[in-house]
Amino acid sequence: MANHTQFGFQDASSPIMEELVEFHDHALMVALAICSLVLYLLALMLMEKLSSNTVDAQEVELVWTILPAIVLIMLALPSLQILYMMDEIDEPNLTLKAIGHQWYWTYEYTDFKDLTFDSYMLPTTDLPLGNFRLLEVDHRVVIPMESHIRVIVTADDVLHSWAVPSLGVKTDAIPGRLNQTSFITTRPGIFYGQCSEICGANHSFMPIVVESAPLNHFENWSSLLSS
């Protein structure tokens, strides 16, 4: 959960989010190196007198042609690797279907016979002490920890977006279309997200709460809810 003075990402709770944070730090270091080099060259040009060697030098032209290509490769390769990892969905342990409505979510556990529920934001008047305002729901999405979860996302009316930052997940919910994503939670906990696509007057009031729990807790919860 992010706090008011936080400038960086939330703590990563999935392997994909860990890779995204590492790539972000890698890209920042590349940008820092470029800015340092440019500032050094600007200071050098201001302090030194121009000569024919600096104005016309094939070696310098060769360097400033090859160097940007190397930098782009350094950014492109890890970026493509993460993109392929995010698209890879291979034999999930559980499939969850999220359907966006104005302005709530419907969840279907397709591996179970009758496990479907709606998830509404809890109004402030009904909020238990210690819970987060505008982020808590009446029914949380409970998933088994360290299991490969596939999420099929769609919408019933307008565009929505199912996003949980700490899991590295953001998938658009489009009426008449099924999009899918996947994630693996690496630790137990409660992870908060929100609809990330402007979908009407109450767009800010359709939060997402994912609870990662041990397998035996998930089995007890699913049997209790489906009975």
From TrEMBL:
Pfam families in the record: COX2, COX2_TM
Residues in Cytochrome oxidase subunit II copper A binding domain copies: 91-224
Alphabetic keyword roster: Copper, Electron transport, Magnesium, Membrane, Metal-binding, Mitochondrion, Mitochondrion inner membrane, Respiratory chain, Translocase, Transmembrane, Transmembrane helix, Transport
UniProt-listed GO biological process terms: ATP synthesis coupled electron transport
Gene Ontology molecular function: copper ion binding; cytochrome-c oxidase activity; oxidoreductase activity
Topology within the bilayer: Multi-pass membrane protein
Cofactor: Cu cation
Alphabetical list of InterPro entries matching this protein: CcO_II, CcO_II-like_C, CcO_II_C, Copper_CuA, Cupredoxin, Cyt_c_oxidase_su2, Cyt_c_oxidase_su2_TM_dom, Cyt_c_oxidase_su2_TM_sf
GO cellular component: mitochondrial inner membrane
Main location: mitochondrion
Transmembrane segments: 27-47, 62-84
Catalysis: reaction(s): 4 Fe(II)-[cytochrome c] + O2 + 8 H(+)(in) = 4 Fe(III)-[cytochrome c] + 2 H2O + 4 H(+)(out)
Cytochrome oxidase subunit II transmembrane region profile domain mapped to chain residues: 1-90
Cofactor binding summary note: Binds a copper A center.
Cellular localisation: Mitochondrion inner membrane
Family the entry assigns: Belongs to the cytochrome c oxidase subunit 2 family.
Annotated function: Component of the cytochrome c oxidase, the last enzyme in the mitochondrial electron transport chain which drives oxidative phosphorylation. The respiratory chain contains 3 multisubunit complexes succinate dehydrogenase (complex II, CII), ubiquinol-cytochrome c oxidoreductase (cytochrome b-c1 complex, complex III, CIII) and cytochrome c oxidase (complex IV, CIV), that cooperate to transfer electrons derived from NADH and succinate to molecular oxygen, creating an electrochemical gradient over the inner membrane that drives transmembrane transport and the ATP synthase.
The protein's name: Cytochrome c oxidase subunit 2
Species of provenance: Furnarius figulus
High-level lineage: Eukaryota, Metazoa, Chordata, Craniata, Vertebrata
